[in-house]
C-alpha cells in the first residue's frame, strides 16, 4: 500500500515547476511578503532542466537590439518598431530586478549568470540591406537603442565579427548593425541562484516531486497532489495560492484545475536543435550574438542566429535553431502529451490553428526531412568557412506554442489567472525567460489586487521604473540603462565604442 504524505496546514504559495518563472515569482513574493510560507515543487531531480536550461534556449537577453522579427516592414515601406520597444522595456524591468538582487546581496556575482556580449543583426542581398538600413534609422534615435552602429562595409563588419566576412562572395551586398549593450544570460544558473536564495530565506524546495492534480476544495483552498519520483510515495498539500510554471505541462494542470479561464486554450509543441562548437580558435574570433532574417514560413522562434554563449564559465558558439516536432509537451515528457491535452472545448481552436498555419506545417516538414548537409548550409550563410567536423548537434528545449480560443496560434506568452486570483499559470514561449520579471509583475497585479497598492513602495525600490514607460522619458531610460549596466557589469550605452562605428 502506497503511503500518502499529507500536510493539512495551508501553504501561502505553492510554485509548480523549478524554472526561471517560479524562481522569479518566488523571489518577488519573498521581497513583498517576507513572512509568507513558499514551497517550490519540481518533478525532476535538479532545477532548470527544461526550457530554462542553458542549452535549451539561446541565452539571449532579448531586448530587440538584434532580433529582426520584432521590427516588421509595413506595407507602406516603413519599419514598425512598437514591438521592439515593448520587448526592450520588458527586458529593462528584468535587468532592474537582477540589479536589485545583486546590490542587496541575494546574487553575489552577476557574472555567474549574465555576461556582456555585442548584439548584431546581419543580412545579405540588396532588398535586405535596404530593410536593415531603414531599421537602423528607425531605432538608432530611440533612447532605448542608444549606441547602435550600422555598416555596409565588409571591412567594418569583419572587425565586428570576422567569421561573417571571411570566405564570403562580396559581390552580394551585406549590412550589419552592432551594439555593445547586449548580453548573454544563463537562465539555468540564474534559476539556481534565485532558488538558492529563496531556500536560504525560508522557502522549501522539493525536487523529484511530480504534481498530478490541482483541485479546489470545499474551503476554497487548493489541494495539490502528486507523487515522489522514484519512490512512488504520494503527497498532498493545501495552498492559498498556486502558480503553475510547469512549462508545457502547465496546460494539462490548468485544465485539471477546471478553471473556466483555460477553456478553449490548446497547445502546439515545437522542438528544436542547435549546432555547437567549443573549439577555442573558432570561439575566440566570434564575440557576438548575430541574428539574421527568418526563412519564409518559419515561426519567429526559428530566426537563425550565431551566438556566443557563456555556460559554466566556458565560452561556446551555437547556431540555429533548426525546427523539429514531437508530441511531447516537455523535453522529459510523454509522447501522449499532445493527445492528452485535447478537450471538446479546444478541439475546434486547435483544428482552426492547423488550417490557418499551413505555411508553418510545410516549414516543419521541410525541416524534419532535410539532410544534415542541407541544414549545415544555413550555417554557411553566416560563417562561410565553417567546417562540419567542428560542430556537434544538440537538442534544445521543447516549446508549446499557445493556441487561443479563437484559433490563433500565438508566438508569445499568455498568463492565465483564475477569477478569484488564487491560481495562475503561464503558457507559451518566446521571449520567455528574458521577460520573466514583467510577466510575474503582471501576474501579481492580477492575482493580488487587494495587496497591489500596499506593495508599491517596495516595488519602486526593486524596480525604479515600475509603472513608467521608459520610451516616454529619455532621461529616465538613460539612467536605468547606465545604472543596471554598472550593477550587472555590462557595457554602458552612455559610452559606445566609437572605434566600432562605420
Automatic annotation (TrEMBL):
It is an enzyme of class 1 (oxidoreductase). Its cofactor is FAD. Gene3D superfamilies: D-Amino Acid Oxidase, subunit A, domain 2, FAD/NAD(P)-binding domain. Pathway: Carbohydrate metabolism; tricarboxylic acid cycle; oxaloacetate from (S)-malate (quinone route): step 1/1. GO terms for biological process: tricarboxylic acid cycle. It catalyses: (S)-malate + a quinone = a quinol + oxaloacetate. Its EC number is 1.1.5.4. Pfam families: Mqo. Signal peptide: none annotated. InterPro entries: FAD/NAD-bd_sf (IPR036188), MQO (IPR006231). Keywords: FAD, Flavoprotein, Oxidoreductase, Tricarboxylic acid cycle. It comes from the Bacteria. One of its GO terms (molecular function) is L-malate dehydrogenase (quinone) activity. Belongs to the MQO family. This is Probable malate:quinone oxidoreductase. It comes from Nocardioides terrae. The lineage of its organism: Bacteria, Bacillati, Actinomycetota, Actinomycetes, Propionibacteriales. The gene is mqo.
Amino acid at each position: 500500500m502506497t503511503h500518502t504524505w499529507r500536510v493539512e496546514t495551508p501553504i501561502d504559495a505553492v510554485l509548480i515547476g523549478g524554472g526561471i518563472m517560479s524562481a522569479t515569482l518566488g523571489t518577488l513574493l519573498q521581497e513583498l511578503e517576507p513572512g509568507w510560507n513558499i514551497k517550490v515543487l519540481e518533478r525532476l531531480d535538479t532545477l532548470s532542466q527544461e526550457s530554462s536550461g542553458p542549452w535549451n534556449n539561446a541565452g539571449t537577453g532579448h531586448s530587440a537590439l538584434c532580433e529582426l522579427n520584432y521590427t516588421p516592414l509595413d506595407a507602406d515601406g516603413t519599419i514598425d518598431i512598437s514591438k521592439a520597444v515593448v520587448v526592450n522595456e520588458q527586458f529593462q524591468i528584468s535587468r532592474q530586478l537582477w540589479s536589485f538582487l545583486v546590490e542587496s546581496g541575494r546574487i553575489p556575482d552577476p557574472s555567474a549568470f549574465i555576461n556582456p556580449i555585442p548584439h548584431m543583426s546581419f543580412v545579405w542581398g540588396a532588398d535586405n540591406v535596404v530593410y536593415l538600413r531603414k531599421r537602423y534609422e528607425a531605432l538608432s534615435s530611440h533612447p532605448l537603442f542608444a549606441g547602435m552602429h550600422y555598416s555596409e562595409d565588409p571591412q567594418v563588419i569583419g572587425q565586428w565579427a570576422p567569421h561573417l566576412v571571411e570566405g564570403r562572395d562580396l559581390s552580394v551586398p551585406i549590412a550589419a548593425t552592432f551594439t555593445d549593450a547586449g548580453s548573454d544570460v544563463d537562465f539555468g544558473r540564474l534559476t539556481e541562484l534565485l532558488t538558492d536564495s529563496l531556500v536560504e530565506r525560508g522557502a522549501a524546495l522539493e525536487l523529484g516531486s511530480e504534481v498530478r492534480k490541482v483541485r479546489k476544495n470545499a474551503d476554497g483552498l487548493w489541494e495539490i497532489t502528486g507523487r515522489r519520483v522514484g519512490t512512488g510515495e504520494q503527497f498532498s498539500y493545501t495552498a492559498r495560492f498556486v502558480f503553475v510554471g510547469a512549462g508545457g505541462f502547465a496546460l494539462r494542470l490548468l485544465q485539471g484545475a477546471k478553471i473556466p479561464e483555460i477553456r478553449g486554450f490548446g497547445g502546439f509543441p515545437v522542438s528544436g536543435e542547435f549546432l555547437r562548437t567549443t573549439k577555442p580558435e573558432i570561439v575566440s574570433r566570434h564575440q557576438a550574438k548575430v541574428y539574421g532574417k527568418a526563412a519564409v514560413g518559419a515561426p519567429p522562434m526559428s530566426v537563425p542566429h550565431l551566438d556566443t554563449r557563456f555556460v559554466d564559465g566556458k565560452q561556446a558558439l551555437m547556431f540555429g535553431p533548426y525546427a523539429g516536432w514531437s508530441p511531447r509537451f516537455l523535453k522529459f515528457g510523454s509522447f501522449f502529451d499532445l493527445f492528452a491535452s485535447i478537450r471538446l472545448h479546444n478541439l475546434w481552436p486547435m483544428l482552426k490553428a492547423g488550417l490557418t498555419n499551413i505555411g508553418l506545417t510545410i516549414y516543419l516538414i521541410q525541416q524534419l526531412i532535410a539532410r544534415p548537409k542541407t541544414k549545415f548550409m544555413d550555417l554557411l550563410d553566416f560563417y562561410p568557412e565553417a567546417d562540419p567536423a567542428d560542430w556537434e548537434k544538440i537538442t534544445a528545449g521543447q516549446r508549446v506554442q499557445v493556441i487561443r480560443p479563437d484559433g490563433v496560434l500565438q508566438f508569445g506568452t499568455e498568463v492565465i489567472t483564475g477569477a478569484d486570483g488564487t491560481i495562475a499559470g503561464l503558457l507559451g514561449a518566446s521571449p520567455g525567460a528574458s521577460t520573466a520579471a514583467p510577466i510575474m509583475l503582471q501576474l501579481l497585479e492580477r492575482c493580488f489586487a487587494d495587496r497591489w497598492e500596499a506593495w508599491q513602495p517596495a516595488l519602486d525600490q526593486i524596480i525604479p521604473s515600475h509603472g513608467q514607460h521608459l520610451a516616454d522619458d529619455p532621461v529616465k531610460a538613460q539612467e536605468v540603462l547606465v545604472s543596471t549596466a554598472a550593477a550587472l557589469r555590462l557595457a554602458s550605452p552612455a559610452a559606445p565604442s566609437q572605434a566600432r562605428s562605420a
